[in-house]
């Protein structure tokens, strides 16, 4: 039976520092991915595959030169603020794939977890390329904050929503940008269908009590629909854990 993780520390059995570190990592990867995928909307993506040459470092046999280049590529942009969850030592334990001659690439952590998808170059149309290549190399799961990325990852086959971590103000990411997320839009939320079915006239008609709803992927959980709508409206979306369908 699938389980909603409502209380981070109780279920994760981790310290507050560990939980905050994990959330910062998810924020980091979500921010990087947004910078790639928003730039590469359907109008920018190029039909057909383009041949890119990748510089590669594998966890089982790290290439120190590539690790350093990937580090420089990853942190070479202006969009990530002061976040730096991956040290050189942590990067050595990942499979790193950087486009040769450009500050753009992605990593696969723990054999199947897609992270650090980034583009700090002038190249365009890399979103689909990175997803295609990452899946080809064994990437089958990823984590992100609900919003624009939900529609994009769903489009690329990551339709198995197996866990949701509800927003917890205690663990709000540092330097978080509180942007409105439309919880009723299937392109930006895993709750769109279930909450849409509960509206009679406008969002104010949503039930203001905890009830069971079915989120994307058939995941059942207890939420307050009215509070969830307002949480998203004021830039507090949930964390979504996805796998390939």
Description:
The protein is α+β, with helices and mostly antiparallel strands. It has two domains: 39-139; 161-243, no CATH class. The protein is 31% helix and 19% strand. It has helices spanning 8-12, 16-37, 64-74, 88-92, 127-136, 148-155, 192-196, 225-233, and strands spanning 54-57, 95-99, 104-109, 113-119, 141-145, 160-165, 211-214, 220-223, 239-243. The strands form three sheets. Strands 1-2-3-4 form a four-stranded antiparallel β-sheet. The radius of gyration is 18 Å and the shape is elongated. 35% of the residues are buried. Residues 1-11 and 42-47 have low confidence and may be disordered.
Short description:
The chain has 245 residues and is α+β, with helices and mostly antiparallel strands. It has helices at residues 8-12, 16-37, 64-74, 88-92, 127-136, 148-155, 192-196, 225-233, and strands spanning 54-57, 95-99, 104-109, 113-119, 141-145, 160-165, 211-214, 220-223, 239-243.
**SSE order in H/E notation?**
HHEHHEEEHEHEHEEHE
Task: Give the fraction of residues assigned to helices.
Answer: 25-40%
- Helix-strand makeup class: alpha+beta
Radius of gyration: 18 Å
């Amino acid at each position: 039976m699938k389980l909603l993780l409502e209380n981070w520390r109780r279920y994760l059995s981790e310290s507050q520092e560990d939980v905050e570190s994990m959330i910062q990592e998810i924020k980091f990867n979500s921010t990087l991915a947004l910078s790639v995928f928003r730039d590469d909307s359907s109008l920018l993506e190029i039909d057909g595959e383009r041949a890119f040459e990748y510089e590669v470092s594998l966890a089982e046999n790290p290439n120190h030169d590539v690790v350093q280049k990937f580090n420089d590529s990853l942190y070479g942009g202006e969009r990530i603020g002061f976040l730096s969850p991956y040290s050189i030592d942590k990067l050595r334990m990942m499979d790193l794939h950087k486009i040769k001659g450009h500050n753009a690439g992605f990593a696969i952590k723990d054999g199947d977890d897609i992270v650090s998808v980034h583009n700090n170059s002038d190249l365009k149309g890399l979103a689909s390329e990175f997803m295609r290549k990452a899946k080809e190399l064994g990437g089958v799961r990823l984590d992100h904050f609900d919003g624009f990325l939900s529609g994009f990852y769903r489009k690329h086959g990551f339709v198995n929503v197996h866990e949701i971590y509800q927003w917890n103000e205690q663990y709000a990411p540092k330097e978080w940008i509180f942007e409105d997320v439309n919880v009723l839009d299937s392109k930006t939320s895993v709750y769109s269908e279930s909450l849409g079915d509960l509206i009679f006239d406008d969002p104010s008609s949503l039930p203001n009590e905890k009830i069971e709803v079915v989120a994307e992927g058939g995941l059942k959980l207890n939420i307050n629909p009215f509070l969830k709508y307002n949480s998203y409206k004021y830039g507090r979306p949930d964390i979504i854990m996805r796998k390939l369908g």
